[in-house]
């Protein structure tokens, strides 16, 4: 790879960017980063849009021991919604002159397996919960990603993976981002979200932790400060760093220009995760 170019994985979801206006602003920002030698790879989620679509269709959200279960019907909705967001993202990037190429994780070379049942404690007893069509990533062939990047294009990946038999699974987008980052040889990973980083007082509080180590993450999880969607997010950050992604930031996607301000302007915003 040309040393001038710096591969960067950017993950966003429906909470961090929603609608045409946000996507256009995001595309402009990516254009600026590309102009400065960055070569982006995008992974996106779509949690809120999937929930909304299920509600519109009158599909109940199935839960077991508080965890969301993805049945076949829910997987189909997730796939439809994610591929629609993917196409919309690719269209906005192209309209801005960025040569984007969309793909599901399965098409991009990601191999999954069904997630084993998770054990949760409910009323003092251990309960096994089968999450359904939810996958773990077991490997990624970097060939498609590499070819796409070498052709000067921006891969845009949505987190539906498949196993060796072609069965499809929904994968958490942050988890997917960490695997795609490592397979694409990204030096930097940015997870855009709807909060300005890890909040020291937990969800809804205001003090941002600007730098955190692996051990610091363990402490905040044990203290119950890091909860919910922030757990797969910090795990994705640690995984990426363990697998040779040098720099990992969490930034607020709702804060205009946050990527350029962090990466180029070196502003003290967001949370940067280091091994410690
Ligand atoms: N200590 C914490 N600091 C900040 N946010 C926290 C913390 N603990 C829990 N959270 C929650 O984590 C959320 C971010 O994860 P979430 O999965 O909801 O968003 P996302 O990953 O950006 O979107 P998506 O999952 O749709 O791709 C925050 O909105 C907040 O509610
Ligand atoms: Mg999430």
SSE layout and pairing:
Blueprint: E1 6-12, H1 19-35, E2 38-44, H2 47-56, E3 63-64, E4 67-68, H3 72-95, E5 100-104, E6 110-114, E7 118-122, E8 125-129, E9 135-140, H4 143-150, E10 154-158, E11 160-162, E12 168-170, H5 173-183, E13 188-193, E14 198-199, E15 208-209, E16 211-213, H6 214-222, H7 230-242, E17 247-252, H8 258-263, E18 271-274
Parallel strand pairs: 1-2, 1-13, 2-10, 5-10, 13-17, 16-18
Antiparallel strand pairs: 3-4, 6-9, 7-8, 11-12, 14-15, 17-18
Helix pairs in contact: 1-3, 2-3, 5-7
The structure holds adenosine-5'-triphosphate and magnesium ion.
Characterization of the model:
The structure is a single chain. It contains 8 helices and 18 strands. The chain has helices at residues 19-35, 47-56, 72-95, 143-150, 173-183, 214-222, 230-242, 258-263, and strands at 6-12, 38-44, 63-64, 67-68, 100-104, 110-114, 118-122, 125-129, 135-140, 154-158, 160-162, 168-170, 188-193, 198-199, 208-209, 211-213, 247-252, 271-274. The protein has an 8-stranded mixed beta sheet with strand order 5-10-2-1-13-17-18-16, sandwiched between helices. A hairpin with a 5-residue loop joins β11 and β12 (168-170). α1 (19-35) crosses α3 (72-95), α2 crosses α3 (72-95) and α5 runs parallel beside α7. The mean pLDDT is 95. Bound molecules: adenosine-5'-triphosphate and magnesium ion (MG). Adenosine-5'-triphosphate binds next to α5, β14 and α7. Adenosine-5'-triphosphate binds at residues 13-16, 45, 47, 173-174, 193-195, 198-199, 202-203, 225-230, 233.
